[in-house]
Amino acid sequence: MFQPLLASAIRALEKLRDIGEPLPDDLPSQLAKLADDAQTDAVRSAEVEELLRPYVLVDVQIDEQGLTAATPGAAPPRLVQHGWRSFLVRVVNPHRLLGDLSAPSNHVLGLVDHHSHAARITLPDTLTVVPRIESSWLQVKLAGPTDVAGLDLEYKVISLYSRDGGSRSGELTFVLAVEEATESLTRPPFAKAGRRMGFESRQYAAMFDFDCLPARDIRFDVREPDGSSTVAALTVRDSQRRAYPSKAMRLAPDMFFHEHVYRATGEVITLPAGQYEISARRGPEYREVRVEVDLSSDSEAVTIELDRWADPAARGYYSGDPHIHAGGCSHYSVPSEGVSPETMIRHVRGEGLWMGSVLTWGPCYYHQKQFFSGLSISPRAELEYPAMQRAQGMTWDPQDTDRDSQSLLRYDLEVSGFPSSHSGHVILLGLTDQDYPGTQLIEDWPSWNLPVMRWGHAQSALVGYAHCGLGLSVGTEELPNYVIPGFQSIGSNEIIVDVPLGAADFQCGAEFAPAAELNIWYHLLNVGYRTLMLGETDYPCIYDDGPGVGRTYVRLPEPPQGEQALEAWLGGLKEGPSYFGDGRSHVYDFAVDGDTGRERALDAPGPVRVTATVAAWLPEQPPAPPAAGRPVYSAPVGWHLERSRIGRTRTVLVEVLVNGVPAEAREVLADGNEQAIEFDVDLERSSWIALRILPSVHTQPIFVEIAGRPIRASRRSARWLHDSVDALWKAKSGFIRESERSAAREAYDAARATYLVRSDESEVD
Question: Residue 112 domain-assigned?
C-alpha cells in the first residue's frame, strides 16, 4: 500500500503549498525519492510517516463502526489571531471504510448559517448569549478533498482560524459519515449507499493548548474623490480568497452572509501579517477599487481612495431603496431578533443611498415595530449589543464621517406574512400609525389588500406592491404582452383591482425579468392611470448583497433631510422627474419639448422633441463567462447593465417608448461620461412617453394629452386588465375570509367595469 500512501502525502503537501503554508523546500523531493527506493513497502511507508510527522497536528483513528478517536500529533499547535494556519491530519483507517470526514468545532457559533425562521429557537439561550459567543473562538475546516478513500493510512489538510490572541485551550473532533463499510478497494464509488454511521457524541476529541500569535488592528482611511470621509463596503481576501473577518465569527454590523464588511474612515479590521487583496465600493455609482497590500507586523493603516463615476445628487437626483429589512430571511430571523437602526444605517451609508425604507414584516413584526416613529432618522452607526461585541473581540470604536447626514432611514411596513399576503405583498411608505385598527395580532388583519391600502391612504401614505414580477412570468419577453398570468405568487396581483379604485400608487421591481415586472405597469399606463414604478432590493430576502441592488432616483430642489425627509422624497416621486434601475446607468432631465414636468398638454397631434442626459458605465471588456458555459449574470439576477451590452462592444441601447412600444433608439457608449440625446417623435393621440435601457434603467413616464383627450392608448390593454381581474379572482378568492368575500367581489366587479369603460373610450385596438 505504499504507492497510495505516497500519492496521498504528495497531494496533502501540494494543498499546503497552495494554501501558502510554509514547508521545507526539500520535503517534496525527499518524498519523490522514496518512489524509486529499493526498500520494502513497509520501510518506505514508515519513512513517509517520519518525514511528515513534524507537520501532523492530529492523528485520527477510525474503528470498524466509523467512530473516531483523535490525539495530538507532533506539530506545535501555534495559530495566528484573525488568520488561518494549516496542518496535516494523519487518518488511520484499518477497516478501510469509505465516507466523508468533517471536523465540527465546539468553539464556533454553530447555527449562525441557519436561515429558517425557527432555526435558532432551540438554542439554549436563557438570559444571555455572551458566554456562548465568548467561547466561540476557533473555526475549523478540512481543506481540499474530505472523502476517506478506504486506505489503511492517508493524509488530509486541516485549517484553523483563531479569533483570539494568546493562549487558548480547545479540542478537535472528527466525524466520519460512513457511506458503506467495504473490504475491497475495487468497489466502484458510484455504488456507495449513503448510510451514515456513528454519532458525534461518541467521537473522542484531541485536546490542545493553542498558542495564538496576536494580530493588529488595521485602520482604513476611506476617502471620497473630493477627500471627504465616508463609509464603504470593504472586501478583504487572502491569497486563498478567504474573506476577513471570518464569516462564521461575525456579529452585526458585520453579516455572515456578506463577503464584505462596512467600515467608515478611521475604523479597523483586525488582520494578521500577510498579503491581501482589498476591494472597495460604495454602490453602483462607484467603480470597484482593488488594492494589494503586504501587511507586516508593524503595519497600521491602509488608504482607500474611492472611484466615483456618477454623482446623481450633483444633478439633483437622490437615491432610495424603498424595500429593505432589519429582520427575517438572511438576517437573524427569530421574531425576537433582527438588527438595529444603528446597523441598518451603516449598510445604507455603505451603499451610497440617501433614503432607506426599513420595512417591518411578518417574521420580525412584533420586535422591529419598536423602531417605528413616523419620522426619518440618521442615527450614529454604533455597535449594537456592546457586551456581545466585546465577547466577540470587536472592540473598535465607530467613527463619524463627513457623509453620514446624507443617508437616512424611515421605518415603515410591508404586509408580508399577513392574511392578505396571497394577494401580493403591500408596501406602505410614510405611515403615521403602523397598527391596523381593531387588531392586536397579525392574524387579525384583513385577508385581502384593498382595506389595507385605503387605511394607508387615510394616513397620506404612498402605497403599492413589492417584488412586482413574482409569479407573473408568462414565457415571453415581449412588452407589452397579452398573455394572462396565473397569479400564483406574491407579485403585483391585486394592484389591477386597487389602481382603478384609486387605492394603489406604485409597484416595485428592478429585480427580475423586465417583461414580468413591467407588463402590468405598461397596461395600466396605456389606459390612462398614473401608476408609479420604483426600483427596490428586498434586502436581504431577494438579494442579500446589500441595500440598493435596485434603486429609485428622485429629483428634488434640495437634499432630503430631517424628520420629514421621506415625505419630501415621496413628494418628488409623485410630482417630478424620477427613474429606477440598477444604478449602473442614469437618465437625467428627461423632457418633452424642454419640459421635465410629468404632465404635458398639446393642442393638436404632431411632433415632439424628447431629450435627456444619459450616463452609463461598463468595463471595457465583458467578464469571462462562468464555467460550464453558463451565461454571464444568469438568473436570478435580473437587472444589470452588463446584460444591455451590445455584443462585445461597450455600447448600450437607449429606447424612447410611446405607449410601451419603442419609437426610436440610439446607441450610447457606456464609458461613464454624460451624453446628451434627443429624439423627434410624432404623436398621433394622447400618449405616455418614457426612456429606458433594458435591463438597467427606466424613467417614469411623461403624460402628453392632446386636445384635452385622456390617454386611452390601447383597447387590448383594457381588455387584458379586465380579463386578468377574472383570473385573479379565480386564483385568490379562496384565500379571502368568507366574512370579507362579498366586499371583495364587489370591488373586483367595480374594477372590471372600469376597464370596460376605458376599453370603450380607447381610440385604437
Answer: yes
Q: Look up cell 387579525; give the residue.
A: 444
Predicted confidence (pLDDT) per residue in 11-53, tens digit: 999 999 888 887 888 888 888 888 777 788 888 889 999 999 9
State how far the alpha carbon of 171 is from the alpha carbons of 146, 198, 208, in Å. 19, 19, 6
- The H-or-E segment that residue 15 falls in is helix 2-19
Question: Residues near 639 by Cβ (< 8 Å), separated by ≥ 6?
Answer: 510, 511, 514, 535, 550, 581, 582, 695, 696
CA–CA distance, 421 with 416 (Å, rounded to integer): 5
Q: Which residue has the cell 445604507?
A: 348
Q: 271 in a domain, yes or no?
A: yes
586-628: pLDDT as tens digits: 999 999 999 999 999 999 999 999 999 999 999 999 987 765 5
Do residue 117 and residue 138 come from a single domain? yes
pLDDT in tens, 152-184: 999 999 999 999 999 999 999 999 988 654 444
Q: Which of 684, 709, 734 is the last residue of a domain?
A: 709
Place of cell 465569527: 249
Q: Are residues 67 and 9 in the same domain?
A: yes
Residue with cell 470621509: 229
Q: For residue 638, what are the contacts with CB-CB under 8 A and spacing of at least 6?
A: 469, 510, 511, 512, 513, 514, 517, 695
What was the pLDDT predicted at 251?
A: 86
For residues 640 and 618, give the distance between their C-alpha atoms in angstroms, rounded to a whole number. 10
What pLDDT does 626 receive? 62
DSSP letter for 710, please: -
**Vertex 668, ends 663 and 674: CA angle to 5°?**
115
Edge-to-edge strand order for the sheet containing 301-305?
A: 268-271, 216-223, 301-305
pLDDT for 630 beyond 70: no
Domain that holds residue 77: 1-213
* Predicted pLDDT of residue 127: 58
Q: Write the CA distances from 451 to 310, 458, 506, integer angstroms.
A: 42, 11, 16
Quick one: which H or E segment has residue 457? Answer: helix 450-458
Specify the amino acid at residue 283: G
> What residue has cell string 485520527?
60
Are 58 and 89 in contact, with CB atoms under 8 Å apart?
yes
| Cα separation, 268 vs 468, whole angstroms | 40
Which amino acid is located at 357 in the chain? Answer: S
Both 643 and 718 in one domain: the answer is no
The answer to whether residue 387 sits within a structural domain is no
From residue 757, how far is each of 263, 495, 721, 722, 746 by CA, in Å?
56, 18, 12, 10, 17
- How many separate domains does the chain show? 4
In a domain, 389, yes or no: no
State which of 663, 679, 709 marks the end of a domain. Answer: 709
Torsion of CA 119, 122, 127, 128, to 10 degrees: -40
Q: Specify whether 522 is located in the same domain as 609.
A: no
CATH number at residue 610: 2.60.40.10
Could you tell me if 597 and 704 lie in one domain? Answer: yes
pLDDT at 37 (0 to 100): 74
- SS3 readout for 169-236: EEEECCEEEEEECCCCCCCCHHHCCCCCCCCHHHCECEEEEEEEECCEEEEEEEECCCCCECEEEEEE
Pairwise CA distance, residues 633 & 221, whole Å: 32
SS in 3 state form for 515-579? HHHHHHHHHHHHCCCCCEEEECCCECCCCCCCCCCCEEEEECCCCCCCCCHHHHHHHHHHHCCEE
Q: Quick one: cell of 540?
A: 436581504
Statement to judge: residues 650 and 698 lie in one domain: yes
Split at pLDDT 50, 70, 90, the class of 195 is very low
pLDDT at 124 (0 to 100): 43
* pLDDT above 50 for 394: yes
